[in-house]
Predict the 3D structure of the following.
Amino acid sequence: MKRHDLKSMSVDQLWSLQKLVASVLARKILAEKSRLDQQLRQLVEPGATPANVKKTPHARRPYPQVLPKYRNPAEPSETWAGRGKQPRWLTAQLRSGKQLDDFRIKPPSDRARRRNSRTNRKMPEGGLNRFA
């Protein structure tokens, strides 16, 4: 490889040298890229393309909604279904000596359940004037 004294070169000589360096660099970059593509093709499974080499995580199965079982009496909007880590409001109350059952949401009474079931019934065909 020849050594070039850049200070003693003319502007035209420097421009031609710059064009030569750019063309040699472009060829070497293309050669390196094709070599890396070839290595990648060898690493990837036969049916896969380099774009989808990354595996996608499996989607979680849908879980049914769990109704809350415990309620904070100080803040009724704060509830807990009894699954996972206990909320801070509950752990603080338990540490103060209260029992978990003190916060349990009571199911509606039989009377309330019957009243709700009557109001949710459909109107009989023909309406209320059915027997008139």
Notes: The chain has a mean pLDDT of 82. Residues 11-43 form the longest helix (33 residues). The two ends are 114 Å apart (CA to CA). The longest strand covers residues 70-71.
